Amino acid sequence: MINQLTLIIGANSDIGKAIATQVASLADTGLILISRQAIDEKDTVEEQNSLKTKKIIVKDYQPQSIDNAIAELVAHSELPISQVFVCNGILHSDKFQPEKRLEDFDAQAFEQVISANTLTPMLWVQKLTPILTRKSPCKFIVFSARVGSINDNKLGGWYSYRASKAALNMMLKTASIELARRAKNIKLISFHPGTTDTPLSKPFQKNVPADKLFTSEFVAKQLLTIVADTPIDHTLSYLDWQGKSINW
Q1: Cα torsion 221, 176, 78, 88: sign
Q2: Cα–Cα nearest to 88, from 107, 64, 112, 68
Q3: Which pLDDT score is estimated for 147?
Q4: What is the mean pLDDT of residues 68-84?
Q5: Are the CB atoms for 167 and 116 separated by under 8 Å?
Q6: Fewer CB within 10 Å, N- or C-terminus of the chain?
Q7: Cβ atoms < 10 Å from Cβ of 52
Q8: pTM of whole model > 0.85?
Q9: 3-state per-residue secondary structure call for 26-95
Q10: Which of 127-136, 210-219, 223-232 has the highest mean pLDDT?
């Protein structure tokens, strides 16, 4: 019997699909999948769990579209949401690559990166909080990156991506302080998945050791274990794929 929900935003991403597939095997948990594109009908989630899965397609991640998605989510079920995964993010596109030097920095590319990596996740935190503020515990996971650590920055480069993840961490930290006062049931986790074999990392995999290039399935399994083992302690946790804390 379903008595709780898992919400995955950016559900059409490789890691989002892998999380959904593993959650689909849980008898007590339903799925709500939000993405900007239709989820592959051949997805394992569809095959195994069609009666437990609600799909919501949004045209973009602007505030109005997010509001509409949340209204549809609320209308779909009154069950508590026990887990939220925000899997959105961008590192490069067909028009720009991560900067190797100062001369590569481009204002328009920076705006795209910080919009996707910082603004979009925070809009979801802001707009979901009112419906998560219940007695039921909820763990809210946002995909960050180790390169967002100011302390860990030893190589330089990647100005926009580093800045967007550092800004995301600061905003999540600030939100965690507020939620500790007004929504004690919510636990925020900023998660670094490691280098995962997805389109995001594809151009940068050449020098990654084989044992450090993870499958989406491995990352999803690690993350779900970490989430289950992390207590609701009214703080923000900044964790890597091993469950180890990352220095800010």
Answers
A1: negative
A2: 112
A3: 96
A4: 93
A5: no
A6: N
A7: 19
A8: yes
A9: CCCEEEEEEECCCCCCCCHHHHHHHHHEEEEECCCCCHHHHHHHHHHHHHHCCCCEEEEEECCCCCCCCC
A10: 223-232
CA–CA dist 215, 23 (Å, integer): 17
- Residue pair 169/144 in contact (Cβ under 8 Å)? The answer is yes
> What pLDDT sits at residue 43?
52
**Does residue 30 carry a pLDDT above 60?**
yes
Beta strands in the chain (DSSP E): 4-9, 29-35, 53-57, 81-86, 138-143, 186-192, 236-240
How far, in Å, CA of 101 to CA of 160, rounded? 11
Rounded to 5 degrees, φ, ψ at 22 are: -75, -40
For 202, counting Cβ atoms within 10 Å of its Cβ (0-12 exposed, 13-18 middle, 19+ buried), the class is: exposed
152 token code pair: 């860990």
Strand partners, 239: 191, 245
Q: How confident is the model at residue 41 (pLDDT cuts 50, 70, 90)?
A: very low
For residue 72, give Cα distances in angstroms to 23, 126, 147.
21, 17, 35
Interhelix angle 216-229/14-23, nearest 10 degrees: 60
Is residue 40 over pLDDT 70?
A: no
- Shortest CA distance to 31 belongs to which of 66, 74, 83? 83
CA distance 172 to 178: 10
Mean pLDDT score of the chain: 91
CA angle centred on 139, ends 4 and 142, rounded to 5°: 120
Q: What is the mean pLDDT of residues 181-194?
A: 96
User: Which value, in Å, is the radius of gyration of the alpha carbons in the chain?
Assistant: 17
